[in-house]
Design a protein that fits this description.
The complex is a heterodimer of chains A (419) and B (105). Helices cover 24% and strands 25% of the residues of chain A. Chain A is of the alpha/beta class. Chain A folds into 3 domains: 167 residues, FAD/NAD(P)-binding domain (3-Layer(bba) Sandwich), CATH 3.50.50; 140 residues, FAD/NAD(P)-binding domain, CATH 3.50.50.60; 86 residues, no CATH class. In chain A, strand 23 and strand 24 form a beta hairpin. Chain B is mainly alpha-helical and 105 residues long. Chain B contains 5 helices and 2 strands, in the order E-E-H-H-H-H-H. The chains are: A alpha/beta (419), B mainly alpha (105).
């Protein structure tokens, strides 16, 4: 009897895990089943461009089933709950699916209703988001009509997916408003719960400099309690108010809703406690976690899910063979940061090494932590790599799962730590 | 790395006054940091939150952000702000003797 590997979620992490496992295990050795409620795989990095008319929503969506290799089955149902003791997944049609190994890849959910007033009066008129397709498309309409006033990008609380995306949105807004000739009539503000634009020293200095250069104001340590779309105010728990004419809000994130209905699986936010090295869940040895669903300190980003894919697949193959897990994730993340005017920065880091200047993946590669046209081209080219290399579970030549150090000016981090 | 003497104990701190070695922490150290932050007396509710911060740090290597702290501790966000007016995640971490929460970049 082949073992059955059930993967919950057919997004970036789930698709990569399924395809890598399919390549690693002969069909007689394991059945691989992916569970997802729909067949719409969204290229999430593209959502940033939708409000500026730089990406058409329909172009960002493809069939989930078509991204899975032959021999991987897609079951089209929502998950009701996981029973860790029985090793079964209950689906929304009342059926159950048994597993030998479970992979949790259901990502992060956007919890709009957790913030008072967020979806109340003004929602989709003066209060928007670009973190889902519907929101990004609606925001495109609102931006097209916006030619004067105060635009505030507000992050409700960490953790969020793609932590640099709110900054990219502001950089693009600055460029886009200039192009329309109305930048001098618009005030741009970034409101963040953190005490700086970014939490790591070298990168924070670079990005804070960019924000200042572009005339974007920053409000720090703002924990949004209420969004009042009627009067146009963000109100924080410590009583501060930030007025706005147009608010672009990144809502609170949590795990998928079934996690809370699955005893022992998740933490109070619905993320799944996970060993940061082996990516095995702490809930049960035969449960693994990939991507945003994990409670790890690593960024919630597609690149992280990509690098985790190799580790998860390798360790599952070891587990099925009865061997100790020996692949270890290092928290490697890699992000292009779009900065407007056809330029972008690139950052590459892990749990130990913060983003520093230099070049990636080696001394003659793309410039790190510096604006360049090459990085912008890289960001655009990445979309094709995503569909044709990442999702099929191939490694990208020259881009290893573990963070490369060649080309990095690591002394910069040491200097920043000492200053 | 600067060293401070709090409640008769030498502790290593970073530039912002967060302990860099959570094992040097004592309840006396907590009370003295709290006083410097404007909290004259730590109530049972403060201690509950401080204990949650230390447990989360031991489990995950970082203290939680505000919403997570609210859910894990069962103390509502509004009350967390009453207890730690300068920002619960940061202030409670400082009093709990753990590093500043990283905010999961």
């Amino acid at each position: 009897m082949p073992d059955r590997i059930v993967i919950l979620g057919g997004g970036t992490g789930g698709t990569i895990a399924a395809n890598r496992l399919r390549r690693s295990l002969p069909e007689g050795r394991a059945d691989i089943v992916v569970v997802d409620r729909d067949d719409a795989h969204v290229y999430q990095p593209g959502l940033l461009f939708v409000p500026f008319g730089m990406a058409a929503p329909s172009r960002l969506v493809r069939s989930r089933a078509r991204q899975l290799l032959r021999g991987v089955e897609l079951v089209r149902h929502a998950v009701d709950a996981v029973d860790l003791g029985a090793g079964t997944v209950a689906l929304d049609d009342g059926s159950t699916l048994g597993y030998d190994v479970l992979v949790v890849a259901t990502g992060a959910a956007l919890l709009f209703e957790e913030t008072e007033g967020l979806t109340g009066p003004g929602w989709r008129r003066t209060v928007h988001t670009f973190y889902d397709m519907e929101g990004a498309a609606a925001l495109a309409g609102a931006l097209a009509r916006f030619d004067a006033g105060h635009l505030v990008v507000d992050v409700v609380d960490m953790p969020i997916k793609c932590p640099v995306a709110p900054l990219e949105f502001l950089f693009l807004a600055d460029w886009w408003l200039q192009r329309r000739g109305v930048r001098d009539r618009v005030r741009l503000t970034f409101a963040t719960p953190l005490d700086g634009a970014f939490t790591k020293a070298v990168c924070n200095r670079e990005l804070s400099g960019l924000l200042a250069k572009k005339g974007i104001e920053v409000v720090t340590e703002l924990n949004t309690a209420t969004v009042d779309g009627e009067s146009g105010r963000l109100i924080s728990y410590d009583g501060r108010e930030v007025p706005f004419d147009l608010a672009v809000v990144v809502p609170l994130h949590g795990g998928a809703s079934y996690v809370a209905r699955s005893p022992g699986l998740g933490d109070p936010l619905g993320f799944v406690p996970t060993d940061p090295a082996t990516l095995q869940s702490r809930a049960h040895p035969n449960v693994f976690v990939i991507g945003d669903a994990a409670d790890l300190a690593a960024s919630k980003a597609g690149s992280v899910a990509h690098f985790e894919g190799e580790i998860v697949a390798h360790n599952i193959v070891r587990l099925l063979a009865g061997e100790p897990l020996d692949a270890r994730f290092d928290g490697h993340a890699n992000c292009f940061i779009e900065s407007g005017f056809g330029k972008a920065l690139l950052i590459d880091f892990n749990d130990e090494v913060e983003p520093v200047p230099g070049h990636f993946p080696g001394p003659v590669g793309l410039p790190l932590l510096r604006e360049s046209r090459l990085n912008h081209m890289g960001k655009l080219a990445f979309e094709q790599l995503y569909w044709h290399a990442l999702l099929p579970g191939r490694s990208i030549p020259g881009v290893p799962s573990h963070m490369p150090t060649a080309g990095k000016r690591l002394a910069a981090a040491a200097l920043a730590a000492g200053s | 790395m600067p060293v401070m003497t709090l409640a008769g104990t030498d502790v290593d701190v970073d530039a912002e006054g967060f302990l860099t070695d959570a094992s040097q922490w004592t309840e006396g150290v907590a009370a003295e940091i709290a006083r410097a932050e404007g909290i004259d007396e730590l109530t049972d509710r403060h201690w509950l939150v401080v204990q949650v911060m230390r447990r989360e740090f031991a489990d995950k290597g970082t203290g939680p952000a505000v919403r997570a702290l609210g859910k894990i501790s069962g103390v509502g966000i509004a009350e967390l702000y009453q207890l730690f007016p300068k920002g619960p995640a940061k202030m409670a971490a400082k009093i709990a003797g753990i590093p500043k929460p990283r905010g999961c970049i």
